[in-house]
Amino acid sequence: MVISKKGSALTAVVHLTVLFLVVMWTIPTAGLFISSIRDKDQLSTSGWWTALSTSEQRLVERAASPESQTQENGLWVIRGNVLGDSEGEVTRFGSSSLKPEDFAAGETAELRRGIRLQVMANGDYEISSETEMQGRRGQRIFYTAEVPPRFTLDNYREVLGAEGLGKSFINSLTVTIPATIIPILIAAFAAYALAWMKFPGRGLLIAAVVGLLVVPLQMSLIPLLKSYNVIGEFFGVGAKTYVGIWLAHTGFGLPLAIYLLRNYIAGLPGEIIESARVDGASDFDIFRKIILPLSFPALASFAIFQFLWVWNDLLIAMVFLGNNEDQLVMTGQLRELLGSRGGNWEILTASAFITIIIPLCVFFGLQRYLVRGLLAGSVK
Amino acid sequence: MADVKLTNVKKVYANQVEVMRDINLDIKQGEFIVFVGPSGCGKSTLLRMISGLEEISGGTLEIDGQVVNDIPPSLRGIAMVFQSYALYPHMTVYDNMAFSLQIAKVAKDDIDQQVRKAAEMLQLTPYLDRLPKALSGGQRQRVAIGRAIVRRPKVFLFDEPLSNLDAALRVATRMEIANLKESMPDSTMIYVTHDQVEAMTLADRIVLLSAGNIEQVGSPLALYERPENVFVAKFIGAPAMNIIPCTVQSTGDHTEVSLSSGQAVTLPIKTASSEQGKPAHFGVRPEHLDIAGDGDAAILEGEVSFIESLGEATLLYIAVPGMDDMVIAKQIGTIPTQRGDKVRLVANPERLHLFDENEQSYRTE
After folding, report:
1. Would an 8 Å CB–CB cutoff place B136 in contact with chain A?
2. What is the ipTM of this complex?
3. Which residue in A41, A119, A328, B346 has its CB near the most CB atoms, within 10 A?
4. Which Pfam families match (chain B) (predicted)?
């Protein structure tokens, strides 16, 4: 009894901790997403958690210019609606920025030169005067309105088009996909050789790979770039190309990839490989038909690592790629946006959400391979 | 045709440890050979050397008259069944069996025909589309055997194929293997096991190994009846043979020895006069010891210190004065003997064994 009580208490703690972590991780993402689809005016005045309630906004609208005045019953009148096409309810209004809330909706405000302004709750306004109104610019009307929640994809349209995020999204994919596939291919071959083929110096080679794991990439960036340029010049390849960054990411990803995959492949049952050898399979056959299918979980988990790392990378992209529209990756574009549009939350949140959408897809697409036990049934 | 011949075969590991020493063995086509021995005796290593998975450090291995020391496993004309089955987990039963033929680029129709034939033989036809994980242990083992059959090898190699099965299934599969052998009288089979029941029931000839040496090669009954040394005598048969230190008293066509317990025993075994007075080992199997009648001259006398009743037989553990180990006597059925009783034991002289000081048998035939 004591044990079971203890156990259930522990289970409760585990559940609470998991719940806490899930909430901690989910709330910022949800906030980002909700912010990114809100109307930009609403976003600037209230937090995302109020997204579903009406918000009170102080707005300003310029009435139609006096040129549109008409004569009615001996009065000169300008009519219109401050809310335009959008929904909402005006509660108060005023005629100057100093006193934007002087009058309740429906009241009549006396302005200069006998001009009267009336704004109704539905936004209709009426400016009337006994003499003809002068001037070319319309009267400014300050009003406070209760605006219902409004969701829109306009932010996404804007960042993908005008802000150039669409192009840099493609650039990022151009960098990331080959920079994920190339190291996995090389590493899988190397891992099989290091795990199952006997050749002199194998142990040293493994030790060298493990040693390379601790080399900080910041240290090797510039030498790498210089030697790439020298070799590139020899072959007539420009200094900043996609090939360069693919090779750089491949190089930086390989030690971990080889290490992870070798450990996994070395753990596969030896009898399966021996059996294939007796069956007449060459090393290449064994690799292709036995090892690759069986290592899929390991390949997938490394693919997730490498993909996320390359996708989120800014440093290597800055060194190996140019800053022009054709080569700027998403992280670089985001940094530019932070500088130029730092106050425009709707743009930043939409951009941020676009950058995380691909990693999320990759993770959810491949995560089932992480938990699938492919080996069940092969050996007792 | 598909003889297997080992001449002075050796296995030395990189650290100079010699695990197999000068193995000489001649296996005829169609024979069922069982390698048996205690754990670590090298029986699996020897099988793996024949298969080509383990390199041969010295000597020659011939299969079908051809030296195959440096020929890869797939070209030796062998097929191997592994202890853990070693099925390809991501392939269906059909693909598992077809794999070697696909590698060999055999025509699709031929592959299909052979796989279905083997599946028929092993009653695997309903399971051809399943993955190994959806099969029971016995079925997996049959797939492993099927995978060997489709290759039509000259030599089948079995590496402890039954040790992962439960007891009932083991008996059933053992009989299946015996049937398989009968249906393919021309194929040579080499079978490794540590279980002497498997060895005794399946083998045409048993090769008994110990610490990298062949102790004796012969039919199961030959090993039981005429063990060449103490190791073989104690390994074959359960419970193990009683070995009692003794001294040779007189030599000739019949040999008289005096046991450490004091009794003198005469055995119908020929010894040379040079053996006179030398220490030796006297052996008698528990099932050959009988409780003596009043008039008989007993070869052993002692007090029963422990009794195991198995129903079909009773095992008496007898403390004999002057001896360190207890003597075991196996009596058929249940007997009225009680713990603490004094018993006198006799044995048929033809069933007695005598080994010299180097533990080799005095019997020469």
Report:
1. no
2. 0.80
3. A119
4. ABC_tran, TOBE_2
